[in-house]
Amino acid sequence: MPNFILEDSSNICLSVIHTTTISNYLKLVEQAFENKGGISGQRAPLKTKTAQRIRERMVSDIKHGALLPPIVIGIVLSEAEYQRAKQISCDEQLDEFIKELDAQNLSIIDGMQRTTALFEALEVAVDISNNQLRVEYWMSCSVNSLIYRMLILNTGQVPWDIKRQLSTVYSPILKEIKDKVPNVEIIGLDQSSRRTSSGEFQGSKLIEFFIAFSSRKPHTEIKEKITEDFERMNAADALADKSFIENFILMIEYLTKLDKAFESLSTKPLTDGKFKTGRDIFTSSPAGIGFMAAAAVVIYGLPGTHRDIEKTKTSVINLRENIESVLEKTENSTDPSKFLDLLSINEQIIRPSGKVGEFERDYFFRAFKTLFEYGKDLDSLTACWVAY
């Protein structure tokens, strides 16, 4: 392989340091995010007085020819593209290669504030358009490796929390879900429309599900910096397992199947209560978050613990058998409403609690953990709903 490109054999990525012009870079970025309202919507400029002064200084430095540290771009490639990329030996070949790629597969992993400063500098000093800029490309066939790289790069930085970090790469994640889960319908991250049928999920909710799955916790509000760093490292540890994304996609597939199964069981919708039909269960964010956190704990163990690959594989097999058993029972149920038992959910969910959101996430975490561990033994879902 040419020295122009280095291969990370641990995470199966290619690293390329590329020299380009400011204008070429910004054109590439605009194209990459044109379907999501422009790059400014990905991470808002920092608004503190100190941050504003720093960026003003950065803009001034750029205007006077300063070089910025390399901006890091992640690219998801097909296997054929990956093999082609390994043969690139100069900037010109890389430029041509990048132009041919699907812009949806490009994400800024590190350098959003620098990119914002470049846009601002170009507005007030057009003559900088041909100034040189360094970009580091991380290329991989798996979004798993790029997310891992992003988490490592940003751990310890302020104030970008984990949800915003993951949002910068949500396109490849959602694309992978679309490609591998045929029954799921994804509502765009920036769209405000509500779902109208089972199997539909907002992109923002799927990102929350990813965070819950990677952190193995039903609570995703990250308010303190120290906690943020621990959450990042939990996710980074999980992503070191090459099958992590595969297992996450698998659980999205099962969530979608259960969502549709619950809707099919609603032959007699209720007139009272929060959950009147089976579709209402996963319309609720706490249910999806609880589902994903419970699945991750069943597969990988409690947060802070580590299972070897063989134990993880065994856990996945057992989990699948329990879910498949429940899905089979939903198809063969002679009394669908009784099997689903929405009455029990509604009775349990109205328990007094100072923090309703936290209570519901904990409730569904325990409910689905019961399903994942005892699904083969269940005659109905009542045992799940009263497990709290």
Explain how this protein is built.
- With 388 residues, this protein is of the alpha/beta class.
- It is built from 18 helices and 7 strands.
- A 5-stranded mixed β-sheet has the order 1-2-5-3-4, sandwiched between helices. Strands 6-7 form a two-stranded parallel sheet.
Q: Going across the biggest sheet, name each strand in turn.
A: 1-2-5-3-4
Q: Strand percentage, roughly?
A: 5-15%
Compute the separation of the termini in Å: 56 Å
Uncertain runs: 35-45, 222-227
Task: Report the mean per-residue pLDDT as an integer.
Answer: 81
- In N-to-C order, the SSE pattern is EEHHEHHEHEHHHEEHHHHHHHHHH
**Biggest sheet record:** 5 strands, mixed
Shape: elongated
Number of strands: 7
The level of helicity is: 55-70%
Rg on CA atoms, Å: 23 Å
Q: Which structural class do you get from the secondary structure elements?
A: alpha/beta
Concise structural overview:
This protein has 18 helices and 7 strands. With 388 residues, the chain is α/β, with parallel strands linked by helices.
